[in-house]
Amino acid sequence: MPFLLVSMTLLHLITLAMLFIATTEKSWWVWGTTESSDLWYNCHLHNITGSWQCATTPENDWLQAVQVLMVLSSILSFVSFLVFMWQLFTIPRGALFYFTGLCQVLAGLTDFAAAVIYTLRNREILEGSRSLEGNFGYCFILAWTCVPLLLCSGVLYSHLRKKE
User: Which residue in 10, 50, 53, 109 has a CA-CA distance of 20 to 30 Å to 3?
Assistant: First the structure.
């Protein structure tokens, strides 16, 4: 049982870190190695100084939906972790972690919705940036990777019983 609890806690912390990175880092769409776009900024590498120069992304309803869903997913996962720690010490033996599982599943679904919107509407989201001859970045891949991890951990939490 302690191994299972440690494994669930590590999985939860890993997915929480992946969500945080996917939400805040600057690599949802990349054009080579010199330009990238994320949920908040469009950045390019300045040739003379060698530093990244970033400007805020143009306002777009689809982008705002992705931003809200990714932030909500991160918050739900964090709340789920706090609730799990609280339940671990307060619920009686034999009880299930239903609320923790529900929060994780909701975090997975909001992450899924954000990734689907970005996948299907990236032309509208990146419209003011420049041409779409780029690729999805690693943060986009992290967001998609979090979806099954969050959903699986949510299901595992709902079947996990507290023992001695």
Answer: 109
Split at pLDDT 50, 70, 90, the class of 131 is: low
Q: Is the pLDDT reported for residue 107 higher than 90?
A: yes
In a domain, 39, yes or no: no
CB-based burial, 115-149: b 16+ in 10 Å, e otherwise: bebbeebbeebbeebeeeebebbebbebbbbbbeb
Label each residue of 49-86 as H, E or C.
CCCEEEEECCCCHHHHHHHHHHHHHHHHHHHHHHHHHH
Residue 34 lies in a domain: no
pTM for this entry: 0.88
pLDDT tens string 51-66: 878 878 778 899 899 9
Asked if residue 45 is part of any domain, the answer here is no
Q: 40-47 — which CB contacts under 8 Å span 24+ positions?
A: 40/67, 42/129
Amino acid occupying residue 37: S
- Total domains in the fold of the chain: 1
Q: Which range of residues forms the domain containing residue 9?
A: 2-28+59-128+139-159
**pLDDT score recorded for residue 133:** 79
